[in-house]
Amino acid sequence: MEPSVGGGQMDDEEELMDIVAARSRGGSGEVGLRELEMFELEIMQQREYEQSKQEEIHPSTPGNTFVGDEVTEELKEDDVSTSKVVQDQMFITNHPQVTSKTPSAEAGPEEVQPRLTCVQNQPVMATAHPGAYAVAPGNTSNESTADDQATTPREGMDGLVVANPVEENEEPTQIARPGHLHGNTGSTSMTLMILVLIGSLLFVGAIVGSICGAGLCSNQEGDVETQAPTSIRYSVLEDIKNRIEEAFGPDYFPENDEPEPTQPKFKALDWIVFDDPLQLNPHASNLLQRFILSLTYFQTSRESDWLDCGPSTTANDETCWIRMRGFESVASRWLTGVHECQWAGIYCDGEKDIAQLQLYQNGLNGPLPTELASLTALESMHLKGNQLTGSIPLELFGTKLSSLSLANNSLTGTVPTEVGLFDGTVLQFGSNSLSGSIPTELFQTGKRITTFRFNDNMLTGTLPTEIAALHGLNQLIVYLQGNPLRGTIRSEIGLLQGSLKELDISWTHMDGSLPEELFTKCTNLISLRVSNCGLTGTISTGLQLLTNIQTFDVSNNKFHGTIPKQLSDLTELRQFIVNGNGLSGSMPSAVCALADPGKEYFEVTADCLPSEGTGNPMVECSCCTLCCDGDAEDYCLPV
């Protein structure tokens, strides 16, 4: 059926199919039955509206005639005249200058059939053949071209569109619909409903975000909230900062100074707030300890990363092997999305509070953070064999710590007097660069200390006589070797009696003789090492009273005389080292008799090589495992 000049009616079925096709080309996909019904209803309403408007359409010069809010498109004389009312639902533009171009004279009557289709408030241009009219935006500038002037609408006709012919294979221009003109109250109502719905969702989202930001949408443990947008995490930044400053002071994050992004505490804060997969809320019970651990990582990896178990650098790499307690085990890497109690070297109590921190030989470098003292449940910290620098944090003393090992690092400074506040059992500061004297505050009545290893530092002074105050202990292990200590071992050491188990003052500058009380009182000694000092005198016959002794090393001193013969009761003996002195005579048969083949290890060393001076051995020994030349320092041969 040919379209009429006025209303442009078409066959119902053909019109409907065109709409379906146009809808599909618009990207909506399949069209359901409900949509077809809506399309058909819309066509009926459109036809009624067009019929009511027929009387208002007036002819004009060839081109475009604008009447009110309608546009009538008329073709030239030789063309089939077609007019189409473009209503509110069709493509429009808000620019006041809207132009169109009429089809060329060569176009046949069957080739020029403009069809502007609108589907459910979403305009769609349906053109399918050469010469069809497409919506054109018109001239968007303030100046009209010569071609535009011939078809420029009269003033006041804002918000209208026109149809332009398109060439074959040319896509029609589509212009987004900016707003309503009039009519179609159903579409307006639908739009209002959608806007209300969107507004409601945004309102609810804002409320939920505020609740989460306040820390009220955490999981059942109250520690972790779901992954939040960055904007929401910014809202909890101040609360988290305040929580941390409650623990470390109001100026912990200075507001007047520009934050140093490379400072470990700012990096730790940034990780906690934005990068931590757990996204803790400000009231999480483990917030502080997780912050302290992240700070520990950032502060001890500034020069180089850890050897093992640092943060993952590749996907699906959240576990590692770590050396702990003499063996290797699998654990979670630091700064991963599991609870910090599962990180390598971390052990927690039943309340998920950190009780132990053990990272042996793992490449930790830089100063140790003082914030570790705020781990109130921490009882053991073993960081032996790293590259830690700086001084021993004073804050670590007076805490719940019972075992502190910072041996084999690069710590400097002194052993602080605050060590007197330490109420634990084990202090290991050996193999560092500590200086000064041994604080007497460490040796106070009532102290529980059982082991202090201050060996291989630069400590000066003497062995404090106050050490005798530790006499009530079950055992006491004292390692002071490798320090330039001076003076003598005072007789007060005998007051330790059954407490003293191990004493090592080798490679010091101590002199004088070994006090007799060391042999007659400290009968629970299992190891006595006093080699490479300046000790003089003889070896006491009281040695036979040390029935638990396993290691007796007095090598490279200035002892003289003979080796006591009454040593048959030293059944636990494993090492008997007396070379490098002025001893003479023979090795007691009681000692040689102790060389039980069933013993895993038995070492006897004496000056049993022919002397460089006399050609004769200074000590005759039939059971020695190593013979040395008393006249040639450190010249020994295995037997």
UniProtKB/TrEMBL annotation:
Record bears the keyword Cell inner membrane: no
InterPro entries: Leu-rich_rpt, LRR_dom_sf, RLP29
Keyword Membrane: no
Keywords attached to this entry: Leucine-rich repeat, Repeat
Organism domain of life: Eukaryota
One Pfam family named in its UniProt record: LRR_1
Chain ranges passing through the membrane: none
Protein name (record): Leucine Rich Repeat
